[in-house]
Design goal:
The structure is a single chain. The chain is an alpha+beta fold. The chain has one domain: Endonuclease/exonuclease/phosphatase (Deoxyribonuclease I, Chain A), CATH 3.60.10. It has five helices and eleven strands, in the order H-E-H-E-E-E-E-E-H-E-H-E-H-E-E-E. The longest helix is centred in the middle third of the chain and has 19 residues. It starts with a helix and ends with a strand.
C-alpha cells in the first residue's frame, strides 16, 4: 500500500518499538530513505512514532519540550523548506478516564508547541489525535459521552486547536460526511459493521488552506485497528 500511495512523507503512530527494532521491510521501503523514530524511554512496546520522508528534512526534532510527556516518545517534527510536518500520537485518556488529567495537560502543552512552530512557518500535523471532535466523528455519540476520546474536555481541546488557526483538513472538505471513521475496535465485528471513530487527522495551518487539494480516509486498507489517512497539498 505504501508503494502504491507513494507519499512524500509517511507518518506512523503507536509503533511500539525502538528504531533499532523496526522491521527490515519498513527500513527498506523504496522512496522513503530518510527515517526517524521515537520510542518511550524504558517502556518497550509502548507508544512510539515514526516519520519517513522522500527528501531529507532540514531539521528533525523529538518531543514538544515537556518533561512530563517527552519520555513517552509521542512526537517527531521534520522541518522542510516550506513547512513543518509533525507526526504525533496523542495520549489516550484511559479506561475509566484514569489518565484524563495528564491528557488535558498534554493538550495544553501540545497546542503551545504547535503555535510556536506556526509562528515560524506553516504546520502539517498528522496522527492519531485520540479524539472524535464532533458527533459525526463516531458511530454512537450518545453512549460515549464519558468515554476516552469523546469527553467534553477532550473535544474542547480540539476546538481550541482549531480556534488557534488550524484546520481539520477532512472536515474542511467534507463537512457533512457520515460514517467516515479511521478506528474500529477488534471486538464484535465493529469494522465490518463500520461501528467506528474518526481519531486520525491531518491538521493544517490555516494559511495552507489554499494548498489543500484533498484529504482522504483509506478505510479499505487493512493491517491495523486504524486505517491510514492521506492529504494532498500543492506546494
Amino acid at each position: 500500500w505504501v508503494q502504491e500511495e507513494a507519499p512524500d512523507v509517511l507518518c506512523l503512530q503507536e509503533t511500539k518499538c525502538e528504531g533499532s527494532s523496526v522491521p527490515p521491510e519498513v527500513r527498506g521501503l523504496p522512496g522513503l530513505p530518510h527515517q526517524f523514530w521515537a520510542s518511550a524511554e524504558g517502556r518497550p512496546g509502548y507508544s512510539g512514532v515514526g516519520l519517513l520522508a522522500k527528501t531529507e528534512p532540514l531539521k528533525v526534532t523529538y518531543g514538544i519540550g515537556s518533561p512530563e510527556h517527552d519520555p513517552e516518545g509521542r512526537v517527531i517534527t521534520a522541518e522542510f523548506p516550506s513547512l513543518f510536518v509533525v507526526s504525533a500520537y496523542v495520549p489516550n485518556a484511559g479506561r475509566g478516564l484514569c489518565r484524563l488529567e495528564p491528557r488535558l495537560r498534554w493538550d495544553s502543552a501540545f497546542l503551545a508547541f504547535l503555535r510556536r512552530l506556526d509562528a515560524l512557518k506553516p504546520v502539517v500535523l498528522c496522527g492519531d489525535l485520540n479524539v472524535a471532535h464532533a458527533e459525526l466523528d463516531l458511530c454512537h455519540p450518545g453512549a460515549n459521552r464519558r468515554s476516552a476520546g469523546f469527553t467534553p474536555q477532550e473535544r474542547q481541546g480540539f476546538s481550541r486547536l482549531l480556534g488557534a488557526g488550524f484546520l481539520d483538513s477532512f472536515r474542511l472538505l467534507y463537512p457533512a460526511a457520515r460514517g467516515a471513521f479511521t478506528f474500529w475496535t477488534y471486538l464484535g465485528g465493529a469494522r465490518a459493521r463500520n461501528v467506528g471513530w474518526r481519531l486520525d487527522y491531518v491538521v493544517l495551518s490555516r494559511r495552507l488552506e489554499g494548498a489543500l487539494c484533498d484529504s482522504k480516509i483509506r478505510s479499505a486498507v487493512m493491517g491495523s485497528d486504524h486505517c491510514p489517512v492521506t492529504a494532498y497539498l500543492a506546494l
